[in-house]
Input
Amino acid sequence: MSNPTPKEDIQKIIQSAQRLGVEMDEADALQWLTAMSAVQSDDGIVVNERTGVFGHKVSMLDFSETDLEHFRRLGRLVEFADVPGKVETALALSGSAAQSKIQTYPGDADYFERVNILAPTREEACKTLADMIREKTEKTLKGPNYLMIEAKFGSYPMDVMRGGKLKKKGDSISWTPQEILAGGFDAFLPDGRTTTIHWEDGMLEPGWCKLDWVTTDGVRGQLVNASNMLDVTWEAPDGTITPLDGYLDPYFQEIYLEAESVPIFSKLAQHVSADALDDYVAQLEKEINKYVTKDVNYGKAAKRMYNVFRLTGRYEEAVFIRELFDEPTSMLYQVWSLFRTMEECCAPDSHIPIEEVQAQADQLVLSVIHALEGNEESMVVKHLLRLRRSLDKQESGHTMHEDVETARAEVMNLVNNFFYEKMTAMPAIRVYMDEVGGK
Output
């Protein structure tokens, strides 16, 4: 018996979506499914000659160039510059921004950058990376439309207590910009003595490197989180490539922003493990498990499931989630971005005005009114308005007010229920969530 054609597959998927109350653009879904069928056995990279962006063929199917110049401008804030003969870089979009063709309302502006450091020794490569992050902090600490929030760099050299929590030896260190510029921070040893963790202490084990800012999104007129996750490698004089964190990340979800980065990307990509796809899927499933069991967030779980499904040939489930995020109702995903901005506004010594958070909440309420209808709209707007009113009691730089916490929890529960009901309406996805959630 011959395998069904994409058109035959799409008819079955459309019938399923209609039964489950998910609107589907038949022409768009058929185009995607046909393209997926053509590239499913091809791990090649494709370059868009007109725009200069490039990436894995599957990833390129979901990228829209509509906001490309906006993301390139924002990329200049987060990126690390090349240093001839010393540092080579390739900046990419990742997360929802790299899937902008389907995710009409992306949450954050996530970037991913390959940083290859040429140095005589690993120690010198680590020192170069530490200096680069510190210099980046100094240059992008605060500007007219951005504020640096934190950086993850280095690993704890010993067990310490920090902020009332145990940080074990080898755990990634989170730094405020002020701590980076001061060169260290105080913590407590398990026996109660005070110790100082210096910037240089965890340098030789950089671990997970990531920098975060909050910035104004000129396209959507709201605050967004912009992050840059670094995949850092050391190139020895003999040409040997060594990942400083012990693992070279795969490239299944990045959209690289400049064609000039093709040579450095190609040099590093050949060192990616042959098991990279299996490892990537396994990592995504760990995150899905977390978001359906512990830190419940069905919106984030859905985004990761989409990537698992499209990379493992489960196209019926992938198309279903793809259309779910293309629906107007998926703008509810912006709630998580609002929550994060609220948390950063309430952090000690925050420079984010509460008025910015209030304006973001106002815009979200208006977007919901525009997108939703009937009882669904009434319920969401009711809870969002309660949250918005509670923000009148909140001050920037102060612990989140009890009324804000309560209203936020109500909205979080409402949005989680929305995504859960949509996803589990498809039996195959419900079974998958049960399986992954039980791991």
Summary: The first helix runs from residue 6 to 19. Residues 45-272 form one domain. The radius of gyration is 23 Å. DSSP finds 15 helices and 15 strands in the chain.
